[in-house]
Amino acid sequence: MPTVARINVTPVKSTALHHPGAVQLETSGPVGDRRIFFVDGSGDWFGGDVDLPLMLIHSVLDEDDDRLKLRLPDGAVIEGSASADGDPISVMYDGRPVAAHLLGAWWGRNLTEHLERPMRLARLDEPGTLVDEAVTIVSLASVRELGSRGGREELDASRFRMTFELDGCEPHEEDTWTGRRIGIGEAELIVGGPIPRCVITTIDAETGKQDFPTLKVIAGYRELTDDGDVPFGLYAQVSRPGVVRIGDPVEPR
């Protein structure tokens, strides 16, 4: 039976992942996941790029004291209030507006100085609105298959930034769950469609350097989506909230 091998969350979207032993799933997704995000100089949400891979930034959010700490690639640590007491903003994500409030201007000044480009932080008004679906899943067998086809003995699944990495599956077995309900720990998911991948998946999460032709390898053996996108892993909605722990069974129904 498939089981949960690793959980990946982060309080600030696109920054380095945390791997807790358990998470509380709500209909909006894991509690506390991706509540804060970067806003660039144009007022758009910024998820990182090859020149500025945000996964090298480590973020810690203390919900009790409402304080955020960021450790930047240059070693600098920025820490301050995580209260969204700045101006309201609306950013476009996947063709829809997402409401948020900026964090204090102090964050923008410090981030702009250290990252050497205009950058601010904002906090979502509603959790889970800056993602396509509440949860994402992929099996480690699928990641191993991809690595093997690309000549890599070991390929870290964290480059895909999935909520749940699963063990005990055949390669791409999770694709057969599309449209089905699956029990996962105390929660239940409705599995949706494939996730279109982007160039960020070619970057090693530890070094920030491009090290694997992810999109080329996937496209070489996987059928593209109707929109011509390169698919890997699946979206899912939360149909029953609950706690999910490492080692919990994953039961397609």
Write the layout of secondary structure elements.
Layout: E1 3-7, E2 22-26, E3 29-30, E4 36-40, E5 45-46, E6 58-62, E7 67-71, E8 77-81, E9 88-93, E10 96-102, H1 105-115, E11 119-124, E12 135-139, H2 140-149, E13 164-167, E14 181-184, E15 187-196, H3 214-221, E16 231-240, E17 242-245, E18 250-252
Parallel strand pairs: 12-13
Antiparallel strand pairs: 1-13, 2-3, 2-17, 4-5, 4-11, 6-7, 7-8, 9-10, 10-11, 12-16, 14-15, 14-18, 15-16
Distance between the termini: 12 Å
Please give the CATH class of the largest domain: Mainly Beta
Neighbour order of strands in the largest sheet: 1-13-12-16-15-14-18
Q: Provide the CATH superfamily of the largest domain.
A: PK beta-barrel domain-like
What profile does the largest beta sheet have?
7 strands, mixed
Number of strands: 18
Helix/sheet category: mainly beta
Alpha plus pi helix count: 3
Radius of gyration: 18 Å
Fraction of helical residues: 10-25%
Categorize the overall geometry.
globular
Number of structural units classed as domains: 2
SSE arrangement, N to C:
EEEEEEEEEEHEEHEEEHEEE
Average predicted confidence as pLDDT? 96
Portion in strands? 35-45%
CATH topology of the largest domain: M1 Pyruvate Kinase, Domain 3
Uncertain stretches of 5 or more adjacent residues: none
Shape-level CATH architecture of the largest domain: Beta Barrel
Polypeptide structure, described:
It is a single chain. The protein has 253 residues and is mainly beta. Helix content is 11%, strand content 37%. The chain has 3 helices and 18 strands. Strands 1-13-12-16-15-14-18 form a 7-stranded mixed beta sheet. The protein starts with a strand and ends with a strand.
